[in-house]
Amino acid sequence: MMTLLPGPDSPTHAPVLVDEVCRLVTPGPRVVDGTLGMGGHAEALRARGATIMGVDIDPEALRASQERLGTQQITYLHGRWFDPPILDTITKYQPHMVLLDMGVSSWQIDADHRGFTFRPGVVLDMRMDRTDPRPTAAAWLSSASLEELSDVFRAYGDERRSRQLAREILRRRANKLFETSDDLVNAIRAVLGPRSGPSDFARLFQAVRIAVNDELEGLERGLPYLRDALAPSGILAVISYHSGEDRIVKHTFREWGKTCRCPAEWPVCRCEGRAFGLVDPRRPLLPTPEEIANNPRARSAKLRVFRKHDEGEGPVLGDGLVAPLFGGGDRSGGAPARRP
């Protein structure tokens, strides 16, 4: 059966915070879009003169973006942006900007054959690449330990009854392995009660999807490699939708912006008091009310930006200005600072 993908004007395709993303860079940079999807951000950045390296793990999305965008000023890579071979290619490319949009497109969630939805009778898959040998959601639910299930529902689904839900899944799969959305929905209802509904199903199905695709672990592992791959004064921009994603990005960027990165047990700073760069702006960029009205899936989006330090100058801003990294003061380092 052929899957119909949304066109460029479809509300399910609209790239989130696209104007804010485009304002981050001067025209003409090398940009890595590590989560290409349907290519909405890449299309807008290319219109500003950027040369794009588009990466995506989903073959269906990659084919669709290739059909839309062609080959002018864009190359395509199939894989997870945090997989070592992809990171190696990104490093060699030395981009001026890397963009990650951590969301899952509505058309992916709504396509029954992808197995993300909690609509009745859908086979649980949830892999972003269905050719990937990793376990499907059904296989994971049928084999994960009590501790693993409980940890995932607590950490990724913010579920306070995570251990009860994990026990219920183990009880049910002892009689019949999990196969469809109904199996997981019924387990959730058994624990959360008859008042549980779509918001609960969406939250806990999302937790399973994150676990199946190694999303948060990959984000945490991969961010330092992207930072190091950036050209001097390069920009790393991440759009997150899930509280776990945003916590990782916020904490990581904050640590990179510290002038002392020595371990806490060291009494004296040995790193010469230099930050990797700075978080700019300090607070996340959020969608406007108008964007949310036009594209409701943007409502939980947060765009955080890290600007890499360049020896001798600050990071290049979107209007071409150069910002001093340490308030215009001396950046020579000086004597090692004593830790407070």
- Largest sheet properties: 7 strands, mixed
Give Rg in angstroms: 22 Å
Strand content is: 5-15%
- Shape, principal axes of CA atoms: globular
**Could you spell the SSE succession in H and E letters?**
HEHEHEHEHHHHHHHEHEHE
Q: Roughly how many Å apart are the termini? A: 64 Å
The count of domains is 2
The CATH superfamily of the largest domain turns out to be Vaccinia Virus protein VP39
- Could you name the CATH class of the largest domain? Alpha Beta
CATH level 3 topology of the largest domain: Rossmann fold
| Rounded average pLDDT | 87
Strand order, main sheet: write it out.
Answer: 3-2-1-4-5-7-6
**Helix content percent band:** 25-40%
Number of helices: 13
Uncertain ranges: 1-12, 312-340
Number of strands: 7
Derived structural class: alpha/beta
What does this structure look like?
The protein has 340 residues and is α/β, with parallel strands linked by helices. It folds into 2 domains: 18-107 and 215-308, Rossmann fold (3-Layer(aba) Sandwich), CATH 3.40.50; 135-212, Putative methyltransferase TM0872, insert domain (DNA polymerase, domain 1). It is 38% helix and 11% strand. The protein has a 7-stranded mixed beta sheet with strand order 3-2-1-4-5-7-6, with helices on both faces. Helix 3 links the parallel strand 2 and strand 3. The model is unreliable at 1-12 and 312-340 (pLDDT under 50).
Question: What are the key terms here?
Answer:
340 residues, alpha/beta, Rossmann fold, DNA polymerase, domain 1, 2 domains, seven-stranded mixed beta sheet, 38% helix, disordered N terminus, disordered C terminus
